[in-house]
Amino acid sequence: MAKAARAAKVEHMCTGCGFRTSRWLGRCPGCGEWASIVEECAAPGAADAVAIDRVPPESGERLSTGIGEFDRVLGGGLVPGAVVLLAGEPGIGKSTLLLTALDRLARQAPDRAVLYVSGEESLAQIRMRGERLSALSPGLLLRSDSSVADALAAADRLGPLVLAVDSVQTLHVAGLDSSAGSVTQVRDVAARLIEWAKRTGTPTLLVGHVTKDGGIAGPRMLEHLVDAVLSFEGDRSHAYRILRACKNRFGSTNEIGVFEMKGKGLEEVCNPSALFLAERPRGSSGSAVVAVMNGTRPLLVEVQALVADAAGGGSARRTAIGVDSGRVALLTAVLERKQGIVLSDQDIYVNVAGGATLEEPAADLAVAAALASSFRDVPLDPRTVILGEVGLAGEVRGVTQIEQRLGEAAQLGFVRCILPESNARRITGAPLELCGVGTLGAAMEALLT
Ligand SMILES: Nc1ncnc2c1ncn2[C@@H]1O[C@H](COP(=O)(O)OP(=O)(O)O)[C@@H](O)[C@H]1O
Ligand SMILES: [Mg+2]
């Protein structure tokens, strides 16, 4: 982007006749001299540096993919020249999401082509998917390529609105010894695509496969080269998918997009809280609901804990999915010291339902409540939502953006919220009953008795 913007603004001048042009030209149209045109220095004496207020502002224009959830994760759409890596396990739905977005982009701009280069599938296969997804815009042009040079030559001829490559692992750079998909190849393919994107200012989407352990010559290594990394995740046995920004030079990394995989393609889930809570068990212990913030959006998620006598007297098992295991260890220790809930000889499993993740300390109290509920085998009230960070002294600390969280909970039918006292004191006219607590002990009393 930086390069493209600069190329558009820098003035060029002929050293012979003073002819000015915004583009560099080999021959001066003014005097006919060859190689006489040079970049003009905007402010002589200012060396190669530019005063901050004289840098031309970026237009800030973003290109909508036509998929709200996708745009949200991108930070509001595609930025000119930005290279976005769409990473995920094989079969998760990357090509589906990509084709849907490209089709909608092509529909928006009937006078520009959108170029989809596939190294994985034949054109007929892509057309079949296009039929299933109703993504058959005539402006969406397909190529099946294995050489990045061929793909970029075609892109140069077309000057597309957006370029997409599915996947970086299947293209190769001619003349390199290693085969497509090797570390060197993937890096070189990506480097050429990135160079092209920056030079032409074209938003470029790259698909990259990752394996369960996140590796194999691929996306991990590309992360620092591209502008944004969006990870497409989900359990293939479930229908929902989460698009998450792991890195974004042009937006927040807190946003997530939620989709449901249907026969006719990916459907945006506009109310993900309902989805995450859909299969929540009623009346069983170890389940607590918390409202977490994902960027600007509150999300209700269920955290489940299972505490069981450790088998065989060896060291107890500790498994945490969707929540940091260090955080669980800390909460376990506080429960033990402050509440007398002895968990050191217990196996502990903590899981966040629906593949969501809890990254905020605001979820501490809900995790602790789920653990205590399972340990005591007392179910928590299913219409209570739990908020609060837990400190080492067993104190419950305040959380941010409390109004949004309460609003979302009330909207989904929750009638009561256990929350930090410091938050509760400041709220007037809450949409549900508030129960402020200052300590873990007070919270457990309110929840488990
Ligand atoms: N004919 C079909 N009907 C319904 N769903 C399908 C069909 N074919 C593929 N899918 C769904 O699409 C998924 C594959 O998506 P795809 O976009 O090809 O994944 P990726 O590109 O990440 O490997 C499959 O796991 C399946 O859920
Ligand atoms: Mg694919």
Protein described:
The chain folds into three domains: 2-54, no CATH class; 68-270, Rossmann fold; 275-448, Ribosomal Protein S5, domain 2. Helices cover 30% and strands 25% of the residues. The chain has 13 helices and 21 strands. The protein has helices spanning 2-9, 68-74, 94-108, 123-133, 148-158, 183-200, 219-222, 272-277, 325-339, 364-376, 402-411, 421-426, 440-448, and strands spanning 12-14, 20-21, 37-39, 83-88, 114-118, 140-144, 162-166, 204-209, 228-234, 240-248, 256-262, 265-268, 287-294, 297-309, 318-321, 346-352, 384-386, 389-390, 396-397, 416-420, 433-437. A hairpin with a 2-residue loop joins strand 11 (256-262) and strand 12. The radius of gyration is 27 Å and the shape is elongated. The model is unreliable at 1-8 (pLDDT under 50). Magnesium ion (MG) binds next to helix 3. Magnesium ion is lined by residues 94-95, 120, 166.
